[in-house]
Amino acid sequence: MSRSFQFDQIGVIHSCYRQKFGIPRQPGIVTAAEAELELLPPYNQENLVRGLEGFSHLWVHFIFHETMDEGWRPTIRPPRLGGKQRMGVFATRSTHRPNPAGLSVVRLKGIQSGNGKLILKLAEADLLDGTPVIDIKPYLPYADALPEARGGFAPLPAVMAEVEFTEKAMTKCLNYEQKTGRQLVLLIQQVLGQDPRPAYLRETTGRRHGSALWDVNVVWESRGDHFLVTDLEAYT
Ligand code: SAM
């Protein structure tokens, strides 16, 4: 018989991804994605991260909190296979797992402490804002990087599509960048370039979509082989 275990939340993610739709399916794809991992009491003490600053990347163990109430499925239709074939849940990185545990390797840009807060500055994550974190481990290149490994039905990253902007949308993006110092244009290009649409919408064209990044709702549509950003709205 299997046993049950309970874990403590050690931290929370604050990220540019305010909605699931648009988040890349793996980390490392959207290099312009920024996130912070805030360690929560009693884990917000500097001695718990002593030595971590020497590592460029981390493994973050987290909970798929947004989907956990939907339960799990024994087989999944991976988007990579066009949503047409079923694979076993343990052959996929699906969020609907027997235990809603996720694992992502992310870039560590720095460690900030002050005012009782301890924050790890991250990049390239695939994590929703508010994601609960249950563990952090350093990424060890000598043990974790395996260039000879086989990638099953997902051997290579998906090809990125072109993303264009209307003049109105680009002007709003540049104003936003100037105001906030955030790299919004590149973020949008990378998020939309990996085609966030579910498999059943991949063939559609001209349909209006919205993706929440930071406090902005990016309005876009597919135009055959590329995407067009038509407007930016406030996202609350
Ligand atoms: N790299 C992780 C892994 O392999 O365990 C996550 C892979 S999962 C396919 C990536 C997707 O998880 C993202 O596209 C996003 O939609 C979803 N996601 C990210 N954070 C989440 C959260 N807190 N709750 C539910 N889903 C989340």
Quick structural summary:
With 236 residues, the chain is mainly beta. 12% of the residues lie in helices and 33% in strands.
Distance between the termini: 46 Å
Please, how many domains? 2
Largest sheet features: 6 strands, antiparallel, barrel
What count of helical segments does DSSP give? 3
Uncertain segments are none
What does the overall shape look like? globular
Radius of gyration: 19 Å
And the CATH topology of the largest domain?
A: Elongation Factor Tu (Ef-tu), domain 3
Q: Could you say which small molecules are bound to this protein?
A: S-adenosylmethionine
The beta-strand count equals 12
Characterise the protein shown here.
The chain is mainly beta and 236 residues long. The longest helix is centred in the last third of the chain and has 14 residues, at 167-180. The protein is globular, with a radius of gyration of 19 Å. Helix content is 12%, strand content 33%. It has 2 domains: 11-144, YaeB-like (Elongation Factor Tu (Ef-tu), domain 3, Beta Barrel), CATH 2.40.30; 162-234, 2-Layer Sandwich (YaeB-like fold), CATH 3.30.2310. Residues 20, 23-27, 64-67, 93, 95, 102-104, 126-128, 131 line the site of S-adenosylmethionine.
